């Protein structure tokens, strides 16, 4: 009985010891949390402008889509909007999701809203007509880079269709009515049906682009992301002016093919050969008992006179030959006497 009494007395002691230990640990934990909470309460905060919901580019900021919230000062990024006067009458230029801190750098100029607020400084927005083929079936999205090529039919039929690179590494501003990349990705069907694409160009490039559009048909070539290389070709108008007809190649057609094509020049070659022969004058010269034959070129003036008089050259030649023979015969008779 005594052993049982001892065991029963030990149980309350163990429970008391366990409770005391647990209480001590809880007290230590509370002591550690209190300074942290006090530090959090003492941390300075400031108001910062934050988006209530999703805001599309070009949308003016109002109390309906943004609000000021208390935020730890050391977590507020430099350039954040912290005062109402900094955003009133201005539009956001990028898509913003809920809970995003509004930055001054993402706002357009005061009083400028809509599309014009998204156009970069010193740039111009110009639209070019496209079809599904030219827009790569909707794969050209806002922010893509493209090269612009013009093709047109040259007035000389021997040259045919010519092409030239008008502009290179041009940024796509919009695809149809889609100006935001997120909208363009989620609305693929609308992209495919787009009838025009907006391009950002410099004031010097804009008239060149429209000039090319009036001359022929424009085509867009999509560039690889990060590829900013340029071909270094000359001005596109110089490219078109430099197109010359190809030099004639050797005609390998047979005489029969030439005849069938109505391009038989055999007769012309014969006439040229005859003309060449007619310009030569063959003379027989008798001296003593010997004779020699020489060919001399007939002067063009003499040949022209012969043609005008309609005197056959062959007759002239025969007369000359006979005269030479008679003269030679007389000389022989004189020598014999």
Q: Calculate the terminal CA-CA distance, rounded to whole Å.
A: 198 Å
The gyration radius over C-alpha positions equals: 50 Å
Enumerate the strands of the largest sheet in spatial order, edge to edge or round the barrel.
3-6-5-4-7
Helix content: 25-40%
Structural class: alpha+beta
Following the backbone from N to C, one meets helices and strands in this order, namely: HEEEEEHHEHEHHHEEHH
What is the overall silhouette?
Answer: elongated
User: How many structurally independent domains?
Assistant: 4
User: What's the average pLDDT?
Assistant: 73
Largest sheet: 5 strands, antiparallel
Unreliable segments (pLDDT under 50, ≥5 consecutive)? 311-321
Please indicate the percent range of residues in DSSP E strands (runs of 2 or more): 15-25%
- Count of discrete alpha- or pi-helical segments spanning 4 or more residues: 9
- The counted number of beta strands is 9
